[in-house]
Amino acid sequence: MDINHIKYILEIAKTGSISRASQNLFVSQPYLSSILKKFEETIGFTIFERTNKGVELTKEGLQIIQDIEKLNDLYEGIANKYQSTHSHFPSLSISARRSSYIAFAIAKMINRLQEENDNLSIKFSETTNLQVIEDVNSGNADIGIIRFYTENKNHFENQLKARYIEWKQLSSFPRVVLIAQQHPLAKKEHLELKDLEPYTEIIHGDFELDDYSEAYLWQKKINSSKKLIQVYERGSLLDFIATIEGSYTWTTATYPTILDKYNLIEKSVLPSHSECLDYIIYKAKLEKSVILRLVEEKIYETIQLFNR
């Protein structure tokens, strides 16, 4: 039994509706129904009777709900007792939204861990916000870092709440345009949206619709037939910006070494608009852990390098 699936079953029992539970959990109703079906097949009997008003617990279902509530409480208690104060993490998995400054911060954290651990295994993956959340929720990542615009704050916080994921805000950055030093707009102190009309925008092709919605609206304001290139890897995006004439990308905080390496510069765009927020996310069992504090510390140190 997957502990997350147990939480899903408990939410169905709490709401009395698969539909409402799917909304609260931010998962599709067919997916939640499939989880319930597999769970019932595993235990060998039906937990819920379907009615016109939703679902009702069967006699056997009432008993197992009481049992798995105890199991869930026991799991949380054991996790908090034995893992919250654990100070050495020879094995650690981190999932993060693509960001050069986050990558540098994680590298600094690894340097610290290498000093304190003879054996060390680190997994670091860069992906989309939704995948980061899923990685933490499923246990494939101990710690996640997500990045989103302020207008999407409620959306992402609701997703975290539904999955019993804790979070802390790490930073906020204004949104800027990243261009090559030889770009025709490089000498302008501030840019306006109309300045970008003739040029080619480069974006990460797998960014979520919710996460990218505001950028999409800005694109429509510029020109619905504008030139657009989608890439799926941060290194390729930087190579393209440095090489493709007249190209640009929307970004927030680029590590200074990266700017120097690729001969890139950042330009503000007027009028200014929403900021980008970075959250570190984790399960409650890591609330008091040394490793969580170390990741936060190194990210905060790296943020100090940005003079914005």
Task: Write up what this structure looks like.
There is one protein chain. With 308 residues, this protein is of the alpha/beta class. 46% of the residues lie in helices and 25% in strands. The chain is built from eleven helices and 13 strands. The strands form three sheets. It has a six-stranded mixed beta sheet with strand order 8-12-7-11-9-10. Strands 4-3-5-13-6 form a five-stranded mixed beta sheet, with helices on both faces. A hairpin with a 2-residue loop joins strand 1 (48-51) and strand 2. The radius of gyration is 23 Å and the shape is elongated. The relative contact order is 0.16.
List keywords for this structure.
308 residues, alpha/beta, Arc Repressor Mutant, subunit A, D-Maltodextrin-Binding Protein, domain 2, 3 domains, 5-stranded mixed β-sheet, transcription regulation, WH_DNA-bd_sf, LysR_HTH_N, DNA binding, DNA-binding transcriptional regulator, LysR family
